[in-house]
Amino acid sequence: MTDQTALEDMARKTFSGPIDFLKSAPTLEFLPDADLPEVAFAGRSNVGKSTLLNALTNRKGLARASNTPGRTQELNFFEVGNPPQFRLVDMPGYGFAKAPPQVAKRWRFLINDFLRGRPTLKRTLLLVDARRGLKDIDRELMAMLDEAAVSYRIVLTKSDKLKDKPLADVTATLAEQAKTHAAAHPEILTTSAESGLGIDELRKAVIQAIG
């Protein structure tokens, strides 16, 4: 069995096994013990984090998805495996302009403090809407992750909304930009929760990150 085949087999078995909601943490003092590897999903509000998590785990209602931007206001932790082998973290969306200023400020501090200070965080997956590309607030987060030496990888969401050529172009552009960031993974993942595009690759990427 080749390494790639073994990885595919492990990813398939892992994400078809037990995956359970653990807890929500509105502030850092509510975080679970840092005793398992973690992979966090970060991105602008309404980028499709919860929907992608549901597709990743092949469970329709694991993460609560909503058409209302800014619904996720806490860090939501999910344990994978029995006994648990690692955790997935659904983070509050950032950059939602209609959120009250104090709420937006609290979300920002929660996100930044978690990403900078979590010792068991193996990788952050930075979700970017394929139709929108990187925005200034994404670049701010990337700069913070670079400075904190927190490994991250860009994942394009809603990629099915673009034709092949525009999708290839935006992927190539982001790959070039990722090369200029010290903590960024050089390869971009293209995904669609709706069509299933790239979901198997995303599963493998999660397994590799915690390994």
Distance between the termini: 18 Å
- How many domains make up the coordinates? 1
Beta-strand share of residues = 15-25%
**What's the SSE pattern?**
HEEHEEHEHEHEH
What's the CATH superfamily, by name? P-loop containing nucleotide triphosphate hydrolases
Strands of the widest sheet, in order across it, are: 1-3-4-2-5-6-7
The rough form would be described as: globular
Name of the CATH class: Alpha Beta
The total of beta strands comes to: 7
Name given to the CATH architecture: 3-Layer(aba) Sandwich
Q: Helix fraction?
A: 25-40%
CATH topology: Rossmann fold
Q: Give unreliable regions as ranges.
A: 66-70
Mean pLDDT: 90
Helical element count?
Answer: 6
Features:
7-stranded mixed sheet; 211 residues; Rossmann fold; alpha/beta
Task: Summarize the structure in words.
The chain has 211 residues and is α/β, with parallel strands linked by helices. It has one domain: Rossmann fold, CATH 3.40.50. It contains six helices and seven strands, in the order αββαββαβαβαβα. Helix 1 crosses helix 6 and helix 2 crosses helix 6. The longest helix is centred in the middle third of the chain and has 17 residues. The chain is globular and about 45 Å long.
